[in-house]
Amino acid sequence: MSEYAVEISPVRRAVNFAPATLFEEVQQNIWTIASTVLGTAPGSRGIGVEWEMVDEPINIAQARITGVLMAAISEQEPRAQVTRITFNEQSMEASMYGRLIPTIRFILVGEE
Question: What is the pTM of this model?
Fold first, then answer.
């Protein structure tokens, strides 16, 4: 069983409407879920996550973001099972602007 990763950077990605593999499709869906504010996707208001934890202390924000992301991904992309979420606090952007950049690690459900 392989573990895959998606880094949720603030840089927008182009949407691939014909992903070649299940992995690419699930990875793109996880990125979309994690980078979309709930209620802002036209035609799909149930996609995304709430971001009400802005301006929390860093350790509390990490815990809350982890919980919110895990719940949203398990509900909105059932083909992925999140194994862990880490935060890149060492990047230049994170240290300069106080941004948490999550990396979501997951396995594909049913993959052997």
Answer: 0.84
